[in-house]
Amino acid sequence: MWTKSNTSVIEWRTPPAESNRLRRIYSIINCQAGTAAEAQRDAVRQAFASYGHEDEIESVIEICERPGFLAQIVRKAIASGADVIVAGGGDGTISTVADQLAGTNVALGVLPFGTLNHFAKDLGIPLDPHEAVEVICRGAIRRVDVGEVNGRCFINNSSLGVYPEAVRVRERWQPLVGKWPALVIGALTVLRRFPVLRLDLEVNGARVRRRVPLLYIGNNDYSVEWPDLGGRARLDEGCLSLWMLHEASRLALLRSAFRLLGGTLHLAPEIEASRVESLTVNSRRRRLRVAVDGEVIPLRPPLRYCIRPRSLSVCVPVA
Questions:
Q1: CB of 18 within 8 A of CB of 2?
Q2: Is the distance from CB of 15 to CB of 58 less than 8 angstroms?
Q3: In sequence order, which ranges of the chain are alpha helices (DSSP H)?
Q4: What per-residue confidence (pLDDT) applies to 54?
Q5: pLDDT band at 41, cuts 50/70/90?
Q6: Best label site of 10, 56, 286, 317, fewest CB within 10 Å?
Q7: Confidence tier at 222 by pLDDT (50, 70, 90)
Q8: pLDDT at residue 49 above 90?
Q9: How confident is the model at residue 4 (pLDDT cuts 50, 70, 90)?
Q10: Neighbouring C-alpha atoms within 13 Å toward the C-beta of 118
Q11: Burial per residue of 282-294, b for 16 or more beta-carbon CB atoms within 10 angstroms, e otherwise
């Protein structure tokens, strides 16, 4: 039986005897994602009360007040015997939880409380909390791929170059001016500094050397055409999508950005695109700043990217 470990954990239903084992669902809400954590918790609790059944589901809801402890909370939930661990937050929160669950038999539930919610949208998971909880309680379990770089899993994408630098600047300015103004400041700053990386790449057994302002690796194939721009039709094709801006100029970067917005990036001559199962990135730098699902982390090269086919179980709507 699960018990209340502190004031931020709610056990809303008393489980019966262990002989009648329930489906155990452990929900973790990142307090820094989306709206106020208390309101999110109340909405989730009410949704579980609506869709769960006392003889089928046992649920615990915990607020993660310090995001640095999120992975530790997930490991505690796994050890407690959870069948499903629910991530409440944006794609970064969901990615951190997925990193712990990949390769296990514990399923991931998604409560999309972020801004963009790419992962939820690509899997057809509703953005409304009540409907998302219904998927967790009554939906199907589907196995999907995750990407990996040096042991760290990602559900959406990873990148090097201008994007990680823009994120770093944005995070410094966001507490002062807000998210969207900080995003503009980050974009203008990287255009001024314009970092260019000298990289040695091993792609599908071939070695190439490139000077690139941006290297992008996606978990499965991303659409760059309307009406599905930025989405993925499937997350179980067992591939990484690799995009390189090989023309190291500000003009090429801006031109590619406009082509992306217009849904014609695949026609850009300055872009190299391919599907790969693995990729090795080397550099003379001792460390590289790498964006992993929006979080910037320093990694020591070589960076070894690979796809882990169908290694993550996710609660999805019934087809």
A1: no
A2: yes
A3: 37-51, 70-79, 91-101, 118-122, 129-138, 162-177, 179-193, 250-261
A4: 57
A5: confident
A6: 286
A7: very high
A8: no
A9: very low
A10: 23
A11: bbeeeebbbbbbb
Chain centroid to CA 122: 12
3-state class of 256 per DSSP?
helix
Question: How far is CA 131 from its chain centroid?
Answer: 20
Beta-ladder partners of 107: 84
Mean pLDDT of 176-190: 92
- Longest CA span, the chain: 67
Rounded to the nearest 10 degrees, how much is the dihedral formed by the CA atoms of 213, 246, 232, 238? -110
Task: Report which of 96, 112, 130, 127 is spatially closest to residue 33, judged by C-alpha positions.
Answer: 112
Q: Token digits for 206?
A: 């071939």
| Residue 52 confidence class, pLDDT cut points 50, 70, 90 | low
The whole-angstrom distance between residue 1's C-alpha and the CA centroid of its chain comes to 31
Q: Where are the alpha helices (DSSP H) in 145-245?
A: 162-177, 179-193
Say which amino acid occupies 288.
L
Query: In Å, what is the CA distance from 299 to each residue of 171, 244, 291?
Result: 19, 19, 10
Q: Is the pLDDT of residue 7 over 70?
A: no
- Tell me the domains of the chain and their CATH numbers: 9-138 (3.40.50.10330), 157-310 (2.60.200.40)
The answer to whether the beta carbons of residues 309 and 145 sit under 8 Å apart is yes
d(CA 239, CA 218): 9
Q: What average pLDDT does the segment 13-31 reach? A: 66
Instruction: Specify whether the backbone of 115 is left (phi greater than 0), alpha (psi in -120 to 50) or beta.
Output: alpha
How far the first Cα of the chain sits from its last, in Å, is 33
One-letter amino acid of 70: L
